[in-house]
Structure formats: structure tokens, C-alpha cells
Amino acid sequence: MEKVRPALLKGFDQEFLPGEQLQFNALVDSIRASFELFGFLPIETPSAERREILTSKGAMEKEIYAITRLAGDPGDTDAARGALHFDLTVPLARYVAMREHALAFPFRRYQIQRVWRGENPQANKGRFREFYQCDIDIIGKGELGYLAEAEIPSVIYMVFSGMQIGDFRIRLNNRKLLKGLLQHFKVSEEIAPEAFRIMDKAEKETHEKTRADLQALGLPEATAAQILKLIVEKSSTDETLDKLSFYADKNELAAQGLKELDQVVKAIRLFEVPDSAFGVDLGVVRGLDYYTGTIYETTLVAHPELGSICSGGRYDDLASYFTNTRLPGVGISIGLSRLFSRMKDAGLLKPLEKTPAEVLVTTMDAKYLARYIGLANELRRAGVNTELYLEGARLGKQLEYASKKGFRLALIAGESEFAKDAVQIKNLRTQIPIEVTLGRLVEAVRAALLEGRT
Amino acid sequence: MEKVRPALLKGFDQEFLPGEQLQFNALVDSIRASFELFGFLPIETPSAERREILTSKGAMEKEIYAITRLAGDPGDTDAARGALHFDLTVPLARYVAMREHALAFPFRRYQIQRVWRGENPQANKGRFREFYQCDIDIIGKGELGYLAEAEIPSVIYMVFSGMQIGDFRIRLNNRKLLKGLLQHFKVSEEIAPEAFRIMDKAEKETHEKTRADLQALGLPEATAAQILKLIVEKSSTDETLDKLSFYADKNELAAQGLKELDQVVKAIRLFEVPDSAFGVDLGVVRGLDYYTGTIYETTLVAHPELGSICSGGRYDDLASYFTNTRLPGVGISIGLSRLFSRMKDAGLLKPLEKTPAEVLVTTMDAKYLARYIGLANELRRAGVNTELYLEGARLGKQLEYASKKGFRLALIAGESEFAKDAVQIKNLRTQIPIEVTLGRLVEAVRAALLEGRT
User: Which of A316, B125, B182, B424 is deepest in the core (most CB within 10 A)?
Assistant: First the structure.
């Protein structure tokens, strides 16, 4: 028979062996636990939405995947109107607009799902067409105070502290402040979006390039230099806020933005996020016009090349395309597939503390089958993850299998052990076996599992 | 601004409010834990595969969703070759064929993911176009013994015992036995598939209809009656095996099937699955020719109308379309979206034992903001899921929010409590408040959470 080559689609190719899948799942579980610690509850939305929902905000249609029946649609016009979601924010907006009356506001939800984008995939940079996003948002009905903006960094702090991936820095800015600064520098509203785009990219460019780009927009040399200085000069949060008060005196919008930033910084400190983990940074711009207040980016101190691993901000109205109810909110998103891929490359993935592959009961001698099954039953009843080696194979092959799969312990017993009502527990890391009587099996296995973990 | 109506696509509409999502997630977690208890490890495969992979087995193309860019494909021929997987078996076959040398065999994996099928959706019957499947398989390289077939029911037993959804029955049969029986009854190989289809549906039809359908196939009246009798007459496992030995004497394939069934039944008992929870049932047929040995269906005793909630079987070769390596296996699948939907309708969903919404710290008086945040920090540090009410609102509204979201406890404190260095802990089920000093906060909250749970 002619074979079909088993291969993956380009960009749909972040697929793991079980060991790596376990590490990925552990990361998801840890993120989920942090979100729940702050009272966020889960939702999931369908992968496919009506096309008019996804394109309501004028999203890039070239990047959206439509779904159609492979062999022609059997008169079904409804599903033919579907496409895969490209983020979790548009589905959230549709969800809240649909379920406005059933939800408790402020609505705090987390959502960990795959999204699809027809971008140019670069596996080596962790960029995929199908990838996981982990989002949280706090949505108010009618209004939402500044404290929500201050609590978000404490969630980010918890998430990345929990991951133990080294020092990170949550960088804050405020869109009103940024807009006010451009007003002060007499940058017209027409070119402001492009100026923001240049400022957003400044950290990846040389100073000369950024200054030249700003000048090319028509800004005087002195203005371009001043803007560049603001973006790249780093100082402590309090010094930065202090320095900015100069501009607040000169522009009303900047004054308002600065006041918000000041309030948010004070509250972040109440939430006990240490100053070493966050700071006001005017280099944070966020491309989208969508954001209207505090904006966030998060970078790993030892791995700036990873870029922002968690970004988001405050917005004025989540679902204006779907409902007249004003729904201001604040949220962040972690691009998990990319983060995982880059963590792996940077050697930041830790071995699992606890693997589900705990004990392999080997089956050396078929005549004791009932006893082997009994051992497995007993351990499972005690809640110990246990696999029974079901095939006839020599012991060496069974132990090889156990090591390849990452089992912690192997149980070994044959004629001589069973004659003594005993069994050997072999630690597969140290290769040291101990013999225990059957009456002490569960107790001894639990002790051996704990021991290996410390 | 004209609004886009927030609505879902037909069949892509199993979407929950957070409370229900938590119940769904709890079910997934419990299934996952049962799978891991037996040494199955997780994998996930991309949602989209190359089209030639999905259609390799001659799957129904009308039911497969292809993906294409919404606004024309920018010269990207690769992604245009993708379609969404319609089950988890074909992706598993591709996965194992691709990674044959990296995997440890027997390869035991579980996989809990969404799949997509362009079927006629019926939400009231729990049939969706996008739905979750939970699969386990044990794949051998070259060979796989009968013990794997015997262990599967013990996994099923663990899964559904863990769900606490009432009595269930794992029903077994063997495809070789079924084929042998049809040979014995002189049913030709040409019409055997159709005869199996009729036998498979027999439990949902009247006896007259089944007999008439079999006769319409060309079977003599007496043969049709004998087959019907075998399918519908229920007796204990041992009686059934006994009764079948009559046919085993007359047909070699039936004899082999019966021998397998007998072996498997004996081992299932060693795995301590009680006879009340499983039994040989000749009414189990499974449509697919794919299966070659033991086959399984599982039904809820009090809810036969739900049909089989977990099905599968033994097959000879998983990935013959992709590799020359022979990969025999055995597996089962739980259609989770359907099961959840039907459990909900049947009132089988239990309230959550543990909700992530544990404590709401109310904020009665803005001047104590720092203290409220401090309380939340302290509880979170202790691992208690805690939300801080961030908006300015009267206490009544805050408590209403807490009830709507399902919080267990509310912390209440104002001038008089703080003057005493105390806080009120209100149990939101009983509405009874207790006052505790701040030094005992964590301890008291933990006790109150435990109390509500028993």
C-alpha cells in the first residue's frame, strides 16, 4: 500500500512528546492557579465564531482562517459563515454582550485557549499559526475604577514568580500621558499613530534610526531628540514620575495620565509588588489605539531578547460593536506557546517536580500475573499513579521502558520475593533497590516517592 | 453605530457561564487524574492536519472542515492544505508514525481535545459540531497482548466511579466472535457489514423491525430469529460465555473470539472490576470494521437513553496508512461535550466541592483601602483564592455580587472592627458572621472554608 507521509502543517507544528507535554501542562496549571488565587473564573468560547463578529473591529482578514466543508457545503449556510478566532478579546466582547444579564460585574474571567493567525510562522522564534493564549480581564459595567489597573501587575507578579523563570520586570506606562506628551511636542493627531509605532519599536532599533524615523515624520530635530531621550532614559519609578511633572504642568492630558500613573503605582505597592519587579517606563507604548489608560509589558531581565512575555492595558469600551452598554476593562495576555518555546531554547524549563509516571509494576514471571495485578490495584487504590507492564518481556526490557518513560520507581518481584511475601522497590534514578514486605508496600512506595522529590 | 448581533454559530455553541465551566473543568480534571493513575501520559496534537492525512482512511469529506484564509491566501499553499481533525485517532496514528523512534512502547497516551465534525447539530441531544473527546489508547510495536484489552475496563471503571454519576455497565463483546457467528449462520461476507449495522441498531428498534431488516437482507426467518435472540437475550457473563460454547464448537473464528473473551473476562476480574459493573453483551457490535478483538460500550443503568457514554475496542494496526510498522492497539473514547450536556439535562451534575471563588474581601470604607488590600495579600500568600472588591459600592451590592459569583465567604470590616483589630467572616451560605482578630485571620478562614465543605 502506498503510504501517506506523516507530517505537520507549517505553523501548526508545536507538538510535544509526552515529557514535554507534561511540562507544558504544568505551566498551564500554574498559570491557572495564579489566576484563580485572584478570583478570576474560567470561561471557554468556541473556536469558530460568525465571521461578522471577528471582522467587526476591522481585523486583518488575511490573517483569519475561515472554515468550510472539505467536500462542499450541503446547503448549510450557517456554518459556512464561520471562522477561527484570532485572539480571545473579540470572543470575550461577544460573550459579555450576549450574557450581560447573567454575569456578575465587575466580570473577572480567565481564558486559556488556542487561537489561530495566518501569520508567517517562525518556529525558531516561537511564532506559530496555532498557539495558546492565556488572558485575564476585569470588565466593569458602566464604570471601572483605577484599582483594577493596579491589581493586574500583582497578578502578573504572582504568575511569573510561580513559574520560577528568574527576575522579570513589569513595565508600566499610560496612554493618556503618551498622548499628552505628543500634544505638548506639537505632534499632529494625523501622524501620532505613526510616531507611536516608531516609539514602540525604539528598543529594538539604534537611537540614530529612531531619531531619523521621527524626523522623517516631519518632527524637528530637537523634538525627535527629546522624545528619544524620554523613551530610552531609564531611571527609578519615583524619579521618572518626578521628571514627568514638568510636562504635566504644560499639558492637561499629560497631567491626567500622570495622575493615573501615580495612583496606580501607589496601589501596586500596597499590593506588595516589590519595586524591583515593576517600574514606570516610557518606552512602553503598545501599538493599539484600543488602550486608553495604563499599559503593561513584561520582560525577563536575563532574556530581553524574548521581548514582552505578557502585555495588555486599560480600555474604555470592550464591546461597542455589539452592545450599547459601556464596558470599560483592563486585561493582559500571555502568549504561552511562544513563551514555552523560548523558555525551552533558553534552558528555563525545569524538570517536573511530580510526574504522573510514578510506579511501574514489572511482570517478570507470568505465573504470578494475579499477584502483579493485585500490586497495581493496591497502589492505585492508594492514589499512586501505577502502570502494570502488560506484555511478556524480559526484565531488562521492562526497566528500559520504565526509564524511557520517566518512571520514578519500579516494583520487581519473582519466585524468591513472593516466597518471602516481599517485593523490591527500585529507585530508577539512583538504581538502588530496597526490599519491603507486602504489608508495608503503600507506605514504602509513598516514602520512596517523597524521598526522590527532595 | 450599527451593532453586530452577538450570537454563536450553529453547532459551535456549547458555551458556559463561569459556574458551569467550573463543573466542566472539574469533570476534565477527574478524567485526567483517572487516566494518569493508570500510567497514561498526555499528548496534544494540532487542531489542523494536512488534508491527505485526515482523508487517508476514506473519512467522510462532507463532515471535515477545511481551513482557508478569509481574504484569499497570500501565495501560501501549505496552510491551504489543512483541515480540522474530526477525531483523535487519525492524529494519533500520524503522531505515532512520525515519532516511532522517540516513543516508548507499549505507548500509552491520553488526549483531551476539541474535534470538529460537520454533522447535523442537535443541542438538545448534546450533539455539537465542535466538541470535546477524551481518548486513551495503548499501542504496541509489532504486538500487543490481551492484557491491555482487560485493563481498559478497569480504567473505564475508575473514570466513571470517580465521576459519581450512578451505576454504569461496561458491556463487552468480541469482533471475532461476532464474525464467526455470522459465518456459522451462513451470512455471506458481502452482506455481513450491513447485518452488523442492523445488529448494532437493534437496541433502539423493536424486535420485529430488527428481524424484518435481517430478513430483508436475505437471511432465512429462522436465522434472523436466532441472531435476534442472541443479541437481545441478556444473562450473566458466565452464562453467556457458557451458552456461546455451543457455537465455538461449530466455527473456528467464533471459538477464537470466545477464547479471547474468556481470557479478558478472567483478567478483568483480577483488575477488581465488580461483575455488577461489566458484562459480556452480544448486543454490542460497533459499526467500524476497524475493530478486530474486544469491543466496549458503557451505559448508565438509570439513563439508558443517553446511549453509550464510552466506547472503543481492539484494532490490529493503527497507522498502516503512514508506516510499515505494525502497530496493534486498544483504545476508548469519551464524548465529553455530549456526556456533560446529557448529565446536565438528567440532573447528574453535582455542585462543586471546591470553588475557586473562596473569599471576597469587601471594601466598605475607602479610607481603609490599604488595610483591605493587606487582608487580600495575606490570604493569597496563604494560598486562599481571594478577590478584593475594587469598586466603590455599598456593602449590600458587594454581598450581592459575592452571592451571584458563588463566593463561600465574605470578609467585612469598617471603623468598629478595625478599632478592635478584628474582621467579620461571613459564611455566604448560612449568612452567619463570626468576628475574629486579625492575628487569627488565615486560620479562621481556613476553618470556615473546611466547615462549609463537609
Answer: B182
Is A324's CB within 8 Å of B95's CB?
no
Say if A17 is an interface residue toward chain B (CB within 8 Å).
yes
- In this predicted structure, the answer to whether residue B453 has a pLDDT above a threshold of 70 is no
Residue boundaries of the structural domains of chain B:
18-345, 359-453
Sheet holding A359-361, edge to edge: A386-388, A359-361, A409-412, A422-427, A433-437
Predicted confidence band of residue B119 (pLDDT cuts 50, 70, 90) = confident
Asked if A324 and B6 come within 8 Å (Cβ–Cβ), the reply is no
Among A124-128, A327-331, B62-66, B73-77, the range with the most confident prediction by mean pLDDT is: A327-331
What are A141's three cell numbers?
A: 459595567
| B54: nearest CA partner in chain A | A4
Nearest residue of B to residue A92 by CA position? Answer: B6
The residue type at B389: Y
ipTM: 0.94
Task: Confirm or reject contact between A66 and chain B (CB < 8 A).
Answer: yes
Show residues of chain B in contact with A405, CB under 8 Å.
Answer: 41, 104
Indicate the DSSP class of residue A302.
Answer: T
CA atoms within 13 A on the CB side of A250: 13
| CA pair distance B24, A303, nearest whole angstrom | 38
C-alpha span between A330 and A154 (Å, rounded): 13
Q: Which of B190, B195, B150, B198 is nearest to B174 (CA)?
A: B150
> Using CA atoms, how far apart are residues B293 and B152, in angstroms rounded to an integer?
13
> Mind giving me the DSSP string for A58-113?
---GGGPEEEEETT---S-TTGGGEEE-SSSHHHHHHHHHHSTTTS-SSEEEEEEE
> Band of the pLDDT at B355, cuts 50, 70, 90?
confident
Structure confidence by residue, pLDDT tens digits, A53-82: 998 876 688 889 999 888 766 555 555 689
pLDDT for B454? 44
Which class in CATH covers the domain with range A18-345?
alpha beta
Of A21, A47, A401, the CB nearest to B44: A21
Q: Does B29 touch chain A (CB under 8 A)?
A: no
Yes or no: is domain A359-453 CATH 3.40.50.800?
yes
CB-closest option in A9, A81, A390 to B49: A9
Cβ distance of A69 and B83 shorter than 8 Å: no
Is residue A263 pLDDT above 50, yes or no?
yes
* B94 at interface of A, judged by CB pairs closer than 8 A: yes
Of the candidates B380, B390, B401, which has its C-beta nearest A145's C-beta?
Answer: B390
